[in-house]
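sorry for the late reply, my laptop died twice this morning and i had to redo everyting from scratch. anyway the thing you sent over, i finally got around to it. pasting the sequence first so we're on the same page, its 328 residues, then the predicted structure underneath. double check i copied it right bc i was rushing
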Amino acid sequence: MGDMMRAVVLEGPGPAESLSIREIPRPRPRPGWVLIRVRAFGLNRSELHTRLGLAGDTVTFPRVPGIEAAGVIEEDPSGTFVPGQQVVTMMGGMGRSFDGGYAQYTCVPVDQVIPFSSGLGWEVVGAVPEMLQTAFGSLTVGLDARPGQSLLIRGGTSSVGMALAVLAKRRGMTVLSTTRDPDKVTALTALGVDHVIVDDGSVSTEARAIVPGGVDAAVELVGAPTLRDTLASTRVHGVVCFTGMLSNVWTVPDFYPIDYIPRGVRLTAYAGEAADLPAEVLQEYLDDVASGAAVVPVGRVFNMDQIVDAHRLMEEGGARGKIVVLTP
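ok and here's the structure:
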């Protein structure tokens, strides 16, 4: 193993072309950290925010982006994991306060590493970590979702939205998903979505026509511009979980809760870490995918040399599922 590695480096905010492939020193694991040989990483809106300079002072440059990675253990000074063991990792400052997953190797704290065992291809496994953690956490921590409930997913053709649909159907929920693109309706019905709503900015009337009185639960993935309408789609004592910001709009201006939140509707939020995804949940999901009982919504697969094209596709919203990058 040499002392150098290939990595994607971002010198500072800018267009997709700001991402460049470089040879940089391979990191060394200090006590309490592990070195992972990255086999694949998924692209996330968080990394788009970083690239566009929307992440505030939480990111220092130059930086190797990437809030998640899938691969195998290369070194673990603590002995918690053995070399060659399959693992995923996510969050915890990856790609922000320290270099992330857009590289052949990444060093992360040992407590944010989740082991698994699977014969699935890395192009599939690479789509899973952050997508599954966010979807699972939104359903459990954010909504405390129950079988038989109705769920509205606002932003249904995002990778998290598609994973939410898969998990919700496995829980026996009735799923309503939105998309702005009529051409993506079949991608949602293929996942088992019960009702697809083409989103023109207002879906509450149609959602209430499907579920009289309003849905039991909703996950907001588009962000602040659609939150009010998502709240209006939800029944009294129903719950809306604010999870995503596909719109890149983070805040509600002049927020007055009594006027903004419908009477009796509950608003919560979810932002998670690796600890929110139990290893057994990851393993069960991968096993279900291997058996055909579940689907990983992979949109496009690129190699590292195509990172600019991959980021352009994410920014344009052109993928029908998770964008995954394989490392050399």
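The chain has two domains: 4-128+296-326, 130-269.
thats about all i looked at so far, will dig more tmrw
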